[in-house]
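Changelog excerpt

This revision adds worked examples to the README so contributors can see how folded entries look when concatenated. The first example is reproduced verbatim below.
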Amino acid sequence: MEGEVLCAYSGNDICNSVFHQEGLKLALFLNVRSLEVASDFLSVTRAINKLEKPPWDCEDQFKRIWDLAYDFAQIIFYHVFRETNRAADFLARIGTDQDSSILYFISPLCRELCSIVEDDKNNKVYLRFNQY
């Protein structure tokens, strides 16, 4: 995988597709025309790729995503497993400490997150531990 990370986000929105929609808007604003979108939301990724029907209460957001996707010369949406997406855990940990429903992290990212993202790009597997 080549390229650079434009943004990352964390949030608690019921329709997780809103995060994808906002990321696409940012990429278009930055004049990016070739894009890879990696997500650990399997059902959202499958719905964006039209492999399954989106939830009825999120259909409008998926339509907006599909419309935005047409503005890219090349765009790929794919699923990544949580075990190779340490950045998601890092962002979720930060997000739970905030009152906002969504937090954006726009490049340049902090040093720790850059290191984590680089590991994720190289499919480094890590162990997740749940604390109860």
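The second example, added in the same revision:
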Amino acid sequence: VIIFFNSLTSVMESLYVHSSPILPRNLPKLNNISLFANSS
């Protein structure tokens, strides 16, 4: 489950970066989710 969630987060993060490069201020939120998934 953690691996799946982490992969899903990575995919969403990639899509978000490519679709919204104008909004880098939201990237820390995605990074926090990734760190949380990795630490769990």
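Reviewer comment on example two: The mean pLDDT is 66. DSSP finds two helices and no strands in the chain.
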